[in-house]
Amino acid sequence: MYPEKFQYFAPSDMASLEELLDKYKDDSKILAGGQSIIPLLKMRFTSIPNIIDISNISGLSFIKHNNNLEIGPMTRTAEVAASNTISVNCPLLFDAAGKVADPQVRNMGTIGGDICEADPRNDMPAVMLALNAEFEITNSSGKRTLNSSEFFKDAYTTALDSNDILTKISIKNTGYHGKYFKYTTLASDFAVFAVAINMKLNSDGTVKDIGIALTNVSSTAVKAEEAETYLIGKKIDDKTSEEAFNKLSNIIELDDDYNGTKEDKEKILKNIFVKGLKEVYGDSK
Amino acid sequence: MMVNIRVNGKQYKKDIEPRLLLVNFLRDELNLTGTHIGCDTSNCGACTVLMDGKSVKSCTVLAMQANNHEITTIEHEDPELDAIKDAYVEEQGLQCGFCTPGMIIESFYLLKNAGDKEVDDDYIKKNLRGNLCRCTGYRSIIDSIKKANKNIKEREEIHVSR
Ligand code: FES
Ligand code: FES
What we know:
The structure holds 2 protein chains of 2 kinds. By secondary structure, chain A is α+β, with helices and mostly antiparallel strands. The mean pLDDT of chain A is 96. In chain A, the strands form 4 sheets. In chain A, strands 4-5-10-6-7 form a 5-stranded antiparallel beta sheet. Chain A has a 4-stranded antiparallel beta sheet with strand order 11-12-13-14, with helices on both faces. Chain A has a 3-stranded parallel beta sheet with strand order 1-3-2, with helices on one face. The N and C termini of chain A lie far apart (52 Å). Chain A has helices at 14-24, 37-42, 77-80, 84-89, 91-97, 103-108, 111-117, 124-131, 225-231, 238-246, 262-284; strands at residues 7-9, 28-31, 50-53, 63-65, 69-71, 134-139, 142-147, 152-154, 157-158, 165-171, 177-183, 193-201, 207-215, 222-223. Chain A folds into 3 domains: 7-53, Uridine Diphospho-n-acetylenolpyruvylglucosamine Reductase, domain 2 (2-Layer Sandwich), CATH 3.30.43.10; 63-171, Uridine Diphospho-n-acetylenolpyruvylglucosamine Reductase, domain 3 (2-Layer Sandwich), CATH 3.30.465; 177-284, Enolase-like, domain 1 (2-Layer Sandwich), CATH 3.30.390. In chain A, a hairpin with a 6-residue loop joins strand 13 (207-215) and strand 14. Chain B has a 5-stranded mixed beta sheet with strand order 2-1-5-3-4, covered by helices on one side. By secondary structure, chain B is an alpha+beta fold. In chain B, 45% of the residues are buried. Chain B has 5 helices and 5 strands, in the order ββαβββαααα. Chain B is 39% helix and 14% strand. Chain B has 2 domains: 2-72, Beta-grasp domain (Ubiquitin-like (UB roll), Roll); 79-161, DNA polymerase, domain 1 (Orthogonal Bundle). Chain B has helices at residues 22-29, 79-90, 100-112, 121-127, 139-161, and strands spanning 2-7, 10-15, 48-51, 54-57, 70-72. In chain B, helix 2 crosses helix 3 (100-112) and helix 2 crosses helix 5 (139-161). The radius of gyration of chain B is 16 Å and the shape is globular. Classes of the chains: A alpha+beta, B alpha+beta. Chain A binds chain B through residues 1-8, 10, 31, 34-35, 38-39, 41-43, 51, 53, 55, 78, 101-105, 107-108, 188-189, and chain B through 1, 17-21, 40-43, 45, 48, 51, 54-57, 59-62, 64-65, 67, 106, 109-110, 127, 129-131. The structure holds FE2/S2 (inorganic) cluster (2 copies). The site of one FE2/S2 (inorganic) cluster (FES) has 10 residues of chain B, from loops.
């Protein structure tokens, strides 16, 4: 299968990238690893006249930890999943990165591409929401910072303008316990749905801070804000975690599909959610 | 557009259309038809090749993305890769053979990157997640990889003791 024809650019510095984006605007798209966009182009779900590959620009791939954890958008998912810095400081991200698709896709795919493509089935958007990550956005007129909670708008739609580039991902909430509970079928490595949990406890065993977000339960990844607020200051047990699940009703829209009926899917999701909360709580103690 | 791609140790310079996929570059431009196209949708792994030593699905990589990079395919001549091919024959790790080039390249990759991890069922299954086989039921593939690991290790020991 061939994509429709396009012009290909591979600028070697940020200035030329900004120039290209200013010139082609909506008729262009950044290519990071290509693991989301190339399949869409091949199946002709979309066509993009100007593809701008950013893999030749140096300085977009890094993993640093000072006070915050900072990750460059071109860092390959496999590098995130193998990084000691990330495993120590951000177990949720470490766990989730290792669960993205398969080894080949992780070798090519990037964390920034996973976030910016914003496919509702992609794993990183929910992980970013649970981590309260911040994104540094650059364009020809300067830099600005966006919180992940204001970034994901709809399927394949983010707060990025056509000339914006995600240049850094910052995570303040390090030193938490966390895991990514991903439910898949054998036929696909995309999540039927998944739950990202990041948690820190007070010394008395109550929840000090918690981030929860879900993959593929709506047209975009969603942050479970009501459930988070409810759980703060509480201990997690059967009762509180089930109550937290009930707080999701406003944000999840499950439908009957080839993965199962709405009712069945809700049951499975509840199971994963409640078990997940208790598991991360157990790890945190 | 001009691309410079090193494939199995040989440098190729070609004028291609930007939309050409790496798998088609290998098969149609270079006539290296060992790399297969199975699903053409990033699921099956039949098209797996190494790019700078890392396994990728060449149906989901533009040839342009491989510009100035090094590709390794099933046609590559390498004693370790040969040892894996032999093990697949010994353990009957194939039936129709369609998935086999991708399986062998991914095996090559997972054995090279095992580090101090034990190459057991668990490790192999995790790393073969991106490769589908519609014939064998995977048991004989897993056994082939274990056998290959054993053969390669033994050969290394012989080298050292000599
Ligand atoms: S042909 Fe590339 S993954 Fe199937
Ligand atoms: S041997 Fe036939 S698909 Fe694997």
